[in-house]
Amino acid sequence: MLRLPLLIALLCLIGCSAREPGQQEPKVIVAPQVSGATAPAFSNMSIEELEAIGEPGDKPAKSAAPKAKSEAVVIRDGPVVVPLHGVKVVKMSKPQFIVQARSEKEDIIALRPSSDDPSGIVVRGLMPGTTDMTLMGKDGTEEKIEVSVCPTFFVAVNESQTWTMVAGKPIKQISNWGDKVIRVEKAAGAPKTLKASGLARGEATITLIAEDGTIEIHQVVVRCLKEPRDFLLLAVGEKSTLSSTPQKADDKLRFPRINKVVIDAEGIVSAEAVLNDASKVMLMAQGPGICWVEITDESRETTRHLVVVREKK
User: Fold this and answer.
1) pLDDT digits over 18-51, tens only?
2) Is 18 helix (H, G, I), strand (E, B) or coil?
3) How far apart are CA 285 and CA 293, in angstroms?
4) Angle at 41 between CA 38 and CA 43, to 5 degrees
5) Distance (Å, whole) CA 160 – CA 206
6) Edge to edge, what strands does the sheet with 215-223 contain?
7) CA distance 229 to 9
């Protein structure tokens, strides 16, 4: 009669001990680029926001039913920018429990409640465009927020890059909200192609209007390749390591163990633990593009790194 309880206890002990080695390696989260509201992606987010969303595969929290009728509507100034295939956590101007959220164009953004923060809504960019999102708070107030979903591109100083609208349509008009950072124009003989030339380090926002009136907003990151870089430049197939932020203890510098690595786009870089050095992660460049890699160490210190991957020359 004693054999069965003894066997169960032994199995529980084995299960607990099997989990311990896995805790020594950093948790790597790669944001999927597939469409769908339940597949979380991570971009430009703090560790608190990441924890609020959870990990890929987590079931989204159920939306709470509205508890009060709308008594007022607040229109927020300026759009909220969400990266294409990325997400951003949005809260009301007066932080409170959000009981209802809706989007006018469900093909542009997907909405779902944060898994453990009822005052935040996770907004995921599905395709370029602009839409209005309305949030209702527990007190019955409604807030209307304009949301713009934008792809991101990289251009080096003194270099030029070309690309087209995601919609693939002929470009009629270009507005550049960063003319000191980048110069943009339609490529000669190619009505669907934009030519961008890097002028100085910085970020720029470009608005493209197609012949049929379709509007796309593109974000551009410009960096200088010859100066000391605050970003990591790799060619496809190359490897590089990133370290945690050094900390001073007893007049000595130590590098804390890395607990989590978040990559905000799929197919650009992969990450894995470095053997015998828990303070580093190895990045492998998979395909051309731009992404952010966020590293969180055991002291909850978080650093973000811009990574640019180019085709092999």
Assistant:
1) 444 444 566 665 544 333 333 333 333 343 444 4
2) helix
3) 12
4) 150
5) 15
6) 152-156, 215-223, 202-210, 171-176
7) 55
